[in-house]
Every structure is written in C-alpha cells, then in structure tokens.
Design brief:
This protein is α/β, with parallel strands linked by helices. The protein is built from nine helices and seven strands, in the order αβααββαββαβαβααα. It is elongated.
C-alpha cells in the first residue's frame, strides 16, 4: 500500500468514523483539524476527492456544503397535521404561494406531548389579512401576524388556531405547501421566544432531538436562520 492510499485508508477507517462517533454532525474544518492533529497531510485537491468519495460510498452523508453527518435518512415531518389547512387555503386561493407547519408535527421529538397545537402559515405579507379573514369565515381561529401582546391576550392554542406570518424570499423551499424541517426548526425557536406558545427550553430540546434523529441540511438551516435574524434586526418584520 502506497502512502497516498494509506492516508486515504486512515481517513476512511479512523478519522471519519471517530468524528461520526463523537458527533452526529461535523464540519469540513473539523475533518481538516483532525487530520492535522494526526499529522496526515493531503493536498486540497486530494482532500476534496477523498471527501467526495466518502459521501458517494456512504462513509459519511452530505449535510450541506461544508457539513457532514453520520445520519443517512432525512428527518421527516408528518404532513397530516397541516393537511386540512392546506386544502382549505388551496380551495380559497388556488394561486397563492404559501407554506405551513404545526407544532403538532414536533410531537415525535418533544419531551411532553403538544396536546393543543398551533399552525403557522407563511405567505406574502399583502395577502395575510385577506387569507385570515377567509379562514375565519371557514371556522379557523386565524390571526394575521399578531405581536406578543396581542397573542398573549387573544391567541389560544388549539386544532383550529392559525397564525399567519409574512414569508421571506430566501426561505427554504416547501413541498406541496408543507414547510421543510430546516425552516420549521428556525421558526419554532423564533415563535417560542416571541409568543411563548411553547417553552424555549422545550423548543431547544425538540431541535436537539430532531438533529439527533436523522439527516438535516445544516447549510439550509443556518442560512435561513441568518437571513431571518438580519430581517428581524432590520425591523422589516416584527417576529
């Protein structure tokens, strides 16, 4: 075995398995630092080639640019808790671009069952009032972008409770109007802090459990979280 192949073997059989054992997710820099600590030198081109092969052969899984994971199967959210709201909105507004999620979708990751769920629906800001009014007429307890004071006073979690929020252009893409988990985890923490519909520590436990349950695209999650933070700090949106 030549030196190049022995370095590749060490990467595949020692370095990457050790990182996978230590953490469900790890960065490109973590791999480089671990190699450096073991005095294993690889050119940038060779390193990229090896990491591509490691992903292709299942040694590690791609968790987004610059991130890897030991998880193979993506984390899924049950779409059933938002199926009815999606049907109702599509019927009333067939051309509306929207997505939604429910706190009930996080029950598999929660320490305590969320018995009284809340649905969050995201659409263009100009449409929120109209959509909320239509949903109210159809029996939903809908609220267009409520602030903390309004939510504390009027909004009560329940099967028919819907909070509408303005969508942003760079949010993760939904499938069949169901928000992806990379979006929902960020929004869950924001709403936990803003509306206190769920305790912040419990929201953090849900996020940690979800991350430990399967593959999540960290680059997408981090990118959305940063964009949302910048927009909130700029005052463009108030949640």
């Amino acid at each position: 075995m030549n030196k190049t192949h022995s370095k590749k073997s060490l990467l595949f059989t020692q370095t990457l398995p050790a990182l996978k054992e230590r953490s469900a997710y790890f960065s490109l820099n973590a791999v480089k630092q671990t190699l450096a600590a073991a005095e294993i030198e690889l050119s940038d081109d060779t390193f990229r080639e090896y990491m591509s092969e490691a992903m292709a052969t299942g040694v590690v899984c791609d968790a987004g640019r610059g991130w890897y994971s030991r998880h193979e199967k993506p984390v899924g959210l049950d779409p059933q808790p938002v199926a009815k709201i999606i049907r109702d909105v599509k019927k009333a507004f067939p051309l509306l671009d929207f997505c939604c999620w429910s706190t009930a979708q996080f029950n598999p990751f929660a320490q305590h069952l969320i018995a009284q769920p809340t649905i969050f629906l995201y659409a263009e800001s100009d449409a929120l009032d109209t959509v909320a009014e239509t949903l109210k007429k159809n029996g939903w307890d809908a609220w267009a972008n409520p602030g903390k004071a309004e939510a504390e006073r009027y909004v009560r979690p329940g099967d028919k409770t819907v909070i509408l929020r303005p969508a942003i252009s760079k949010q993760p893409e939904a499938k069949d109007h169901v928000a992806p988990i990379e979006k929902t985890l960020v929004d869950l923490m924001i709403e936990a802090q803003k509306l206190q519909l769920i305790d912040v520590p419990e929201a953090q436990r849900i996020i940690d459990t979800a991350l430990g349950s399967g593959l999540i695209q960290l680059t997408v999650l981090f990118g959305y979280a940063e964009t949302k933070r910048e927009i909130i700090e700029s005052g463009e949106i108030t949640h």
